[in-house]
Design goal:
Helix content is about 30%, strand content about 20%. The chain is an alpha+beta fold. The chain has two domains: about 20-40 and about 125-210, Outer membrane lipoprotein wza domain like (Outer membrane lipoprotein wza fold like); about 45-120, wza like fold (2-Layer Sandwich), CATH 3.30.1950.10. It has a five-stranded mixed sheet, covered by helices on one side. The protein has a three-stranded antiparallel sheet with strand order 2-1-5, with helices on one face. The chain has a two-stranded antiparallel sheet with strand order 3-4. β6 and β7 form a beta hairpin. α1 crosses α5 (about 210-240). The longest helix is centred in the C-terminal third of the chain and has 27 residues, at about 210-240. The two termini are about 35 Å apart.
Length: about 250
C-alpha cells in the first residue's frame, strides 16, 4: 500500500469515527443554558452535598465559632456542644438557621443573623473539560463557572479545534436527548464575542476536539505505531545488541 492510499485510508477512518460516535450539535440547544447576567447564582444559593466543607461564624458561641466541618457521607455535620445537623441538600442560609435553632436553646443570640455559614471548600459537584487541552478532567463546580473560564483554565493545546468546541448537557432522563451546541472559543478570545458564554451546571461536559489534520495524524499514528514496534522487535532479534562495541544503524552494536 503506497503512501497516498494510506493517507486516504486514514482520512476514511477518521470520517467513519466521527460519523459513528458523533452527536449532532443543535444551535437551539443553547436555550437550555443561561447567561451569567440572567441569573443570580451566588454562594447563598449553593446546595451542600458530601464532601463539601463549611465554616461556622458565630462570635457569641465560642464552641462553634470558626469551626470547620466536612459534610459526612450521611449528609450531616456534628458539634460536641450542639449535636448533629442535617446539612446535605440545604443552602448555607438553611444550615445557619438549623444551627441557630440548636444554639438558641442555650444561648441568647441578638441580631438578625447571629450565625453565618460559609463554604470553605467546594468538593461535591464537578463539570468536565476533555479533549485537546493541557489540563483535562473534572473541575470543581462553584455556580459561577462559564464556558470561557472553563476552557481558558483547561488551556487548549496546539491540536485543539478551538472554533468547534462542544458544550454538552447530559440528559437526566433516557427519553430526552442531551443538549449540545458549538462554541467558537477562538472568536471569544480574539473578538470578545461572549454571546455564547453561558453558565455551566454541575455535570456539564466541554469537549475540545482535534482539528481535522490532527485527527488524521492520530489515526495514522495509531495505525503505524504497532507496525513500527513489531518491526523494531524483529530488528532486535536479527541484530541483538552486545555489551561491547559501537552502535551502527545497519548492524546494531559491533
Amino acid at each position: 500500500m503506497n503512501r497516498s492510499k494510506k493517507l486516504a485510508l486514514a482520512a476514511l477512518l477518521v470520517a467513519m469515527a466521527f460519523a459513528s460516535g458523533c452527536f449532532t450539535p443543535n444551535p437551539e440547544d443553547i436555550r437550555a443554558f443561561v447567561k451569567p447576567y440572567e441569573v443570580d447564582v451566588t454562594a447563598e444559593n449553593y446546595i451542600f452535598q458530601p464532601p463539601d466543607e463549611i465554616e461556622i461564624h458565630c462570635a457569641q458561641v465560642p464552641e462553634i465559632d470558626l469551626e470547620r466541618q466536612r459534610i459526612r457521607p450521611d449528609g450531616k455535620i456534628s458539634f460536641e456542644a450542639i449535636g448533629e445537623i442535617e446539612a446535605a441538600g440545604k443552602t448555607p442560609q438553611e444550615v445557619a438557621a438549623a444551627i441557630q435553632e440548636k444554639v438558641a436553646a442555650t444561648y441568647v443570640l441578638p441580631g438578625d443573623n447571629p450565625v453565618d455559614v460559609r463554604i470553605s471548600l467546594y468538593a461535591s459537584q464537578v463539570y468536565y473539560v476533555v479533549g485537546q487541552v493541557m489540563r483535562p478532567g473534572p473541575r470543581t463546580y462553584t455556580g459561577r463557572d462559564s464556558v470561557l473560564t472553563a476552557v481558558a483554565l483547561a488551556q487548549p493545546n496546539p491540536l485543539a479545534w478551538e472554533e468547534r468546541v462542544r458544550v454538552i448537557r447530559p440528559s437526566a432522563h433516557e427519553e430526552e436527548p442531551p443538549r449540545i451546541f458549538l462554541v467558537n472559543y477562538q472568536r471569544m478570545i480574539s473578538r470578545g464575542d461572549t454571546s455564547k458564554d453561558v453558565l455551566l451546571q454541575e455535570g456539564d461536559i466541554i469537549y475540545v476536539p482535534p482539528t481535522i489534520l490532527a485527527a488524521i495524524g492520530m489515526v495514522v499514528e495509531e495505525f503505524i505505531t504497532p507496525v513500527a514496534r513489531a518491526f523494531y522487535g524483529w530488528y532486535l532479534v536479527q541484530n541483538p545488541p552486545t555489551s561491547t562495541g559501537a552502535y551502527t544503524p545497519a548492524g546494531g552494536f559491533r
